[in-house]
Amino acid sequence: MIKQSHIRNFAIIAHVDHGKSTLSDRLLELTSTISKDKMQAQFLDQNPISRERGITIKLAPVRMVYTLNAIPYTLNLIDTPGHVDFSYEVSRTLAACEGAVLLVDATQGIQAQTVAHYQVAKKLGLVMVPVINKIDLPNAQTDIVTKELTDTFGFTRDEIFYISAKTGENVDTLLAEIVAKIPSPHGDEHASLRALIFDAVYDEYRGVVAYVRVVDGSVKKGDRVRLFASGVKTDVTEVGYFSPYLQPSDVLETGAIGYVLTGIKDIRQARVGDTIVSQSSTAKPLPGYTTPQPMVFFGMYPKSSDDFGPLKESLGKLMLNDTALTYSEEYSAYLGSGFRVGFLGLLHAEIVKERLQQEFGLEILLTMPQVLYERKQDGSIFEPYMLLHVYTPSAYVGGIMTICQKRKGSMLDMQYHEGYAVLSYNMPYSMFIRGLSNDIKAISSGFASLDYEVTEYKPADLLDLEIRINENPIDVLSELVYKEESMYMAREKAGKLKEVLPRQQIRQVIQAVVNGTIVAREEIPAFRKDVLAKMSGGDRTRKDKLLEAQKKGKSRMVQHAKIDLPQEALFSMIERK
Q1: Domain of 524?
Q2: Quick one: 450 exposed, middle or buried, by C-beta within 10 A (0-12, 13-18, 19+)?
Q3: Does pTM top 0.85 for this prediction?
């Protein structure tokens, strides 16, 4: 039996690429959780896309045993994602902990997700250990970053640890500080079971594996339990902890982090944030549960029509381990059968696309992204707004303000710190998927970073933009646009389509239509065939008859011929690079 006073549950939180996974590697080595001959870089990132990109896209828990002053302590570490798309997952992870290591890169300083995760951890009452990483690098700005931490978060210099996760410098001292500073769990071991699900994965042989933090009571094999939000009642078939692999144990007691197997086959019944209780318990659920809502929608089509069935099957398999992914079938007259797929954000969409390519060998097309609009009965349209925070060196403030104002941003606050500024805006979420991040990165030479939170829906002056060729609407090119941008976007789309479409035997008239009114027009002339070339003589009436017959034939073709849109042309119009 592990005493609660000897348990430490903590996470490592930081901005993307500040060294979370590397620090996790050193902790695994120092505690002899993983032997050096089996150790590999980013050990907890078992996803190949995580390794390729060098970022954590899926949280990973592990139990370590660390002896200090002859007392063995159980350290439960959860390595968290750093990207804003997975912020809900991070918030539930932090709810399973008593403390967090706040990691900051000595070469980059405080950035968007550093502050975002700090604020979540502070709201949850977590004890934080501030750490500056990468002090071994020649371009490390340790003094400047130290001042940022003291000015921004109120830490004292004595609280801050200086480490190199890569070389292991001072990591052993940090381990001792984690034991000393982060409090042990304080659940009621005699109360009825309450366990927080902070993640879940699907195993095709054993069903859903729920990653849990036992807040009160205990759980063991054979217990009858109920999942509070879904109402599912089931038997526990196995419990255990992470070594980091699944390691069965007799019981998970109060304060423990581990896994619970119940035989549930549908991962949607064991969502992140739900509470596991005893079947007959009247205990209240743990706070903070919400269902992650997809905010960005793409049309997803196989580049080969033969891949529709495999794509549907592959999306179904991905959903087994990704409860935030949603999809429904849709049909395009020009791309054939496909799906309307919802994602948490743009990075989430890119990761799913890469997984479809790498794991299932599918080449797919993602159409233009759309946010989730709300259409009211009176015909009005509401769009989501976000609270945007931009963290930038002071020199780039003017350029970033110009970009945000052009993107319908309303400034809420601006704060200056030592060498950098924090700008806060209220802005339509659609601006984020229309390249806001890239524009800010470009104007700041890559030094600025941003964080956002979707806050509310507001009325939007949006119009339907439709593209037609010879009166035939091209469904995959239709979208909602802002009224003041409609003319520009209509002309831009019509002009680009003229450039990419090949000439055909008939004239092609491209029209951009906004709310039923044609506002832009382009024309691609037909190939001209000289029907008089074979005539060697004769009077003018014979030539006129041939020309008139050609004219009537082309008129019939315009009315009845099917518009031939090469897929390459459509791909160039809608595919995101």
Answers
A1: 464-574
A2: buried
A3: no
